[in-house]
Amino acid sequence: MVNPVARRIGAAVTAVVATVALTPTAASAAYGTIGERETVCAGDLFVRTEPNGAWMGTLYRGQTFLVEGPRSGGYIYGFAYGQINRRGWVQDGWFC
């Protein structure tokens, strides 16, 4: 028969391991590289007129963004392909 304390410890260790294994890592999303056409990893990524400015469209997972730079306050400037097809700012760090 298994000791009840050992059973609880085993369950806790299993829960911690599962949580760590399912937690997204930096490898699942990356910052854009200037000059590269990057693929969006986020479910959706707002394209704005300026950093934290007015919304002008949304890129969805798998769509692409040509990173032109510069960076400003966590945002990066470039060209949003797809139905947007214009230049704007997106939050940096959501590319594959």
UniProtKB/TrEMBL annotation:
Residues 1-29 form the signal peptide. It comes from the Bacteria. The keyword Signal applies. Keywords: Signal. This is SH3 domain-containing protein. The lineage of its organism: Bacteria, Bacillati, Actinomycetota, Actinomycetes, Micromonosporales.
